Amino acid sequence: MLAQLRGDFPDVTISKIRFLEAEGLVQPGRTPSGYRQFAPADVERLRFVLSAQRDHYLPLKVIKEQLDAADQGAASAEHTAAMPRLPRKLVSLDAPGENGGLPSPGDFETDREIRLTEEDLLRQAGIDAATLAELRQYGLVRPGAAGFFDPDAVLVAKTVKAMTEFGIEPRHLRAFRAAADREVGLLEQIVTPVYRHRDEDAQARGDEVVRELAALTVALHTLLVKAGIRAVTGG
Predict the structure, then answer these.
(1) Closest CA to 139 of 110, 91, 175
(2) What is the mean pLDDT of the chain?
(3) What are phi and psi of 35, to 5 degrees?
(4) 76 has a pLDDT exceeding 60
(5) DSSP letter string over the chain?
(6) C-beta separation of 132 from 157 below 8 A
(7) Cα–chain-centroid distance for residue 2?
(8) Phi-psi region of 126 (alpha: psi -120 to 50; beta: other; left: phi over 0)
(9) Axis crossing angle, helix 118-125 with helix 129-137, rounded to the nearest 10
(10) CA dist., res. 100 & res. 108, Å (int)
(11) Are 16 and 26 spatial neighbours (Cβ–Cβ below 8 Å)?
């Protein structure tokens, strides 16, 4: 089962699958001696869950609601704006270009560290040196101690580049950096104790807590911005 998933999801582990099972997202069969048995439908279900987390930043609660709706033979109308309607047969959300041409974190997921030079970043993000200088000036991208960038810097640069088409400049986004730093400080207090547990599943649980909180943070930010725009425009 892991071999089938790791081609698209290199970071998937047994601990993560067991966590998803404990959350009710997959229910493999059991042999008389207690070993888990994953049918093709279970693998397909896991592929859907992992794609929804990675590519759409959805919390597990929302993913489970979508899966329950699919199991009942009807799509959930409440979340159709966030995800495609689910047919009876689950489909993967790995199709390229779903994000309007912008990359998603899954585009760079790997089981090894990736270090990018400044030239790599400029080429992959499609920006010039002056733009990168602005991004660094306002704290939107930061190289590591060795002077290299990670793949997230490419995602940030491409996102900012797309925002400039609406007249937004890097200097306008300093508030995003400050808000993100405040959120990191808050979430760190929550996830650090989870990672410090000594059992073998602590890493997987910590990773899932981070994913859940990140997804909820994105959802809350979107809702607050939409509400604020409606209030200002009277919409």
Answers:
(1) 175
(2) 79
(3) -75, 140
(4) no
(5) -HHHHHTT-TT--HHHHHHHHHTTS---EE-TT--EE--HHHHHHHHHHHHHHHHH---HHHHHHHHHHHHTTS--GGGTTTSPPP-SS---S--TTTTTT---GGGG--SS---B-HHHHHHHHT--HHHHHHHHHTTSS---TTS-B-HHHHHHHHHHHHHHTTT--GGGGHHHHHHHHHHHHHHHHHHHHHHT--STTHHHHHHHHHHHHHHHHHHHHHHHHHHHHHHHHT-
(6) yes
(7) 20
(8) left
(9) 110
(10) 17
(11) no
**Residue 235 confidence (pLDDT):** 64
Residue 32's identity, in one-letter code, is P
Q: How far is CA 80 from CA 75, 86, 168, in A?
A: 8, 9, 29
Which are the contacts of 96, defined by CB distance < 8 A and separation ≥ 6?
none
Residue listed under structure tokens 């920006």? 127
Is 171:138 a contact under the CB 8 Å cutoff?
Answer: yes
C-alpha distances (whole Å) from 91 to each of 8, 109, 168 are: 14, 20, 36
Res. 120: pLDDT tops 80: yes
Residue 105 vs residue 56, higher pLDDT: 56
For the stretch 134-183, pLDDT in tens is 999 999 999 988 889 988 899 899 999 999 888 999 999 988 888 888 88
Q: At 177, list the tokens.
A: 């950096």
Q: What percent of the chain has pLDDT over 90?
A: 23
pLDDT attached to residue 129: 94
Which candidate, 22, 62, 71, 19, places its Cα nearest to that of 44?
Answer: 71
**pTM for this prediction:** 0.52
